[in-house]
Write a structure and sequence with these properties.
339 residues; alpha+beta; 2 domains; 8 helices
């Protein structure tokens, strides 16, 4: 069952939180709302859940109007499940009773099956305070999914869990959601979480969707410099034309280095990807100010004579205070007109 937002706008007094939001979370897929705090993603989730009333536009579920300016059913009257950051388990109930809370009496026998699906088999008799943080989140997922809602809404569900456990929880959660074919709308500010979980991602900034697409589309063809910076580890620098190529504070690059046509402007933004640049020794080049190992590659900070810095990643041995010029991969630099 798809979840569609049409021309959604929302304000808190004079502050516009959402501005003409239009996108569809496809049936059976995991769609992520990604953005910094205050971008409007939690407001959008609240409108879908029925925690907020629609001020303008409409929300459709499975092709039918779920909410608009005239009607706003409460959460319990909507075909949605909710899962929040703190899990919100009932502390006075056992794990089994928490998971079975939303089930009719005739389906209580399904509880152990849901516990098994989320890796909590045999723990149904424990209370929330007897579980680890990761186990509590798994229990919250089982409780949200046990009634088998067509749509599941998740608001920063793993933010309070430590990073190592978070990665496993994300993988396990995605497996369960995809197997159940539940249409899922996930809110997060973490790009890694979006890439780990989502089939499609809506990147939000200041109440608008900057780009909506698959992780591959956002990585390979960002619609804005900020999207490239989020998903490609790219840095945004000022650039200008240099013959058929481009120039910036960190070097001059030929036309083969640039993807697509250049904007029709004297100055524009360039995206330079940290992992798509080679370093070539050059006595007149940038100077290495810092470098440290980041797994298989080293992250290297280089500076020009004015102290402007850029960061690249390399597997080649690098020495402090040595000088190098940047040699970008073919088609790796992207140029964007400024608003």
């Amino acid at each position: 069952m798809s979840l569609e937002f049409r021309h959604i706008a929302h304000a808190y007094g004079d502050v516009e939180a959402l501005k003409d939001i239009n996108f569809t979370a496809p049936a059976g897929e995991i769609t992520c709302l990604l953005g910094a705090s205050g971008c409007g993603k939690s407001t959008l989730l609240g409108l879908a859940a029925g925690l907020l009333k629609v001020q303008a536009g409409s929300i459709h579920c499975g092709g039918e109007v779920l909410a608009d300016e005239k009607q706003s059913p409460p959460p319990e009257a909507r075909p949605v499940g909710l899962m929040f950051q703190d899990g919100a388990l009932f502390p006075h109930m056992t794990l089994a009773k928490n998971v079975g809370f939303g089930l009719p009496r005739g389906r209580r026998g399904e509880v152990e099956g849901w516990l098994e699906q989320v890796g909590l088999s045999g723990l149904g008799g424990r209370y929330p305070h007897e579980l680890s943080g990761g186990q509590q989140q798994r229990a919250a997922l089982a409780r949200a999914m046990a009634p088998e809602p067509p749509v599941l809404l998740m608001d920063e569900p793993f933010a309070s869990v430590d990073i190592v456990l978070r990665r496993k929880l994300r993988r396990d959660c995605r497996r369960v959601l995809r197997a159940s074919e539940t249409t899922t709308l996930l809110v997060t500010h973490d790009p890694d979480e979006a890439l780990d979980m989502a089939d499609r991602i809506a990147v939000m900034e200041a109440g608008r969707i900057v780009q909506f697409g698959t992780p591959a589309e956002l990585h390979e063809a960002p619609a804005a410099p900020s999207v490239g910076a989020i998903f490609g580890g790219a840095q945004i620098v000022s650039g200008w034309r240099a013959g058929a190529g481009v120039e910036c504070d960190f070097g001059t690059f030929d036309a083969e280095s640039v993807a697509g046509p250049l904007p029709d402007a004297d100055e524009f933004d360039l995206l330079i990807y940290a992992d798509a640049v080679r370093l070539a020794e050059d006595e007149n080049g940038l100077i290495v100010r810092d470098h440290h190992l980041m797994g298989a590659a080293s992250r290297v900070a280089l500076a020009d004579e004015q102290g402007n810095e850029i960061t690249v990643e390399t597997r080649a041995p690098i020495d402090l205070n040595q000088r190098y010029r940047l040699v970008p991969d073919a088609g790796s630099i992207r140029a964007f007109a400024r608003d």
